[in-house]
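Note to self: keep these together.
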Amino acid sequence: MSAFARRGACPALSAPMQTGDGLLARLHTVAGGLSPKALIGLCESALRHGNGIVEVTARGSVQIRGLTPPSAQALARDVDALEIDVRSGVPVETGALAGIDAEEIADPRPLANEIRAAIEKAGLGARLGPKVSVVVDGGGRLPMDAVLADVRLVACGNPKAWHLAIGGTAASARQLGVVEKSQACAAAITILEAIAALGREARARDLDAQRVVTEIPLSGLPAISPLVREMAGRPERGNLQARPTGTPVSMFSLADGTLALGIALPFGSMPAENIIALAQGAIAVGVTEIRPAPSRTLLFPGVSLDACDNLRDAAASLGFITHAADPRLSIAACPGSPACTSGRIATRALAERIAAHDADFLDGSFTLHVSGCAKGCAHPAPAALTLVGHDLNAHDDGAGIALDATARSPEAAGTVISDAQAGVARIASLARRNRQSGETVAACLSRLGAATVTTAFMQGRE
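Structure:
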């Protein structure tokens, strides 16, 4: 474990990545979940060997921060001793409620296992870049629409077929058509082979989709609807829905008649002691599995309604997010300074202040991305509003703003002010004054236009 992952690679347990507060290791469990005792043991290991901060990522992986080269090795030994099976190689992801969701169209696990075996047989793990991934979505209550993937297979109305798309989220991926269930694995491998042929830096977005389609046996079933095609790539601020569907912070009916409770970590981060306390509370109400889930959440399946209520109360008292309307769910914030050497601002402290001061502004119709630098790790896709940390002068750090863009947008570098919270507060005030009846904040900002919104943000520029 002496060779650490380069920045931009995936910081797996076997190859942690250097950050501003030490090494970062990421774990994605094979089974999808952990027993409460195993999660407690992992958090205790984080306290012993790291800085005691445990994170759940946007894709549902667990991260341990603040490691050193020797302590990273000790963490790996602890994971082995806890008998936690950690995935390696090309990620093939199935969603947090895979196989137990009462509303799932198809169980995605058999197809995902088939694809994993085929990837290993073809030796693709060594030929693909570290961020290449596959999503197999069973079409249940927690869709994986927001998860970036190079290959997307989504269950459709016909139980013997899967929608196939490449290179992006559900909205931005290129839709290829429908494949029969028996051909779905072969289709995924064909696409991964095509990516591998372009080199380890390649992704599905680099492929010639038309050429790839000629090599895939698409079915004669109806392709994805024109409406879905029209929605693909639509700017986020055009979304008129007040709260995105599929939020994991809720209760879900399971196929066996029990419930699953979802709670979120604020910006994906929590002290290990708080997670230990919550896991102990889960044991007390009979929970046998805790599933790290996309959108930086933890799911507690197999519980009764009373147990859900008890767990939700315990989680709220420990600082977790327990309600889907919590304004912090509308913010994506990276660790920022000082946790990351690239961070120019204390992103999460800034995000907490914005959420506390302008909760009504964060109505769930858009994402506010608070990025410590131009890399935009917390939200790689374009966001309606993105704050980007920049060096303002020798004594101050500041942030610029970009609209309908990523953190890499040149616009952010030209709009830097010293008090980004005040700038967002001015945008919030602008929205309150101009918002029409029944209009979301996203629609209001879109109607007002980028120039007006940017001017409001910069009014107090020094």
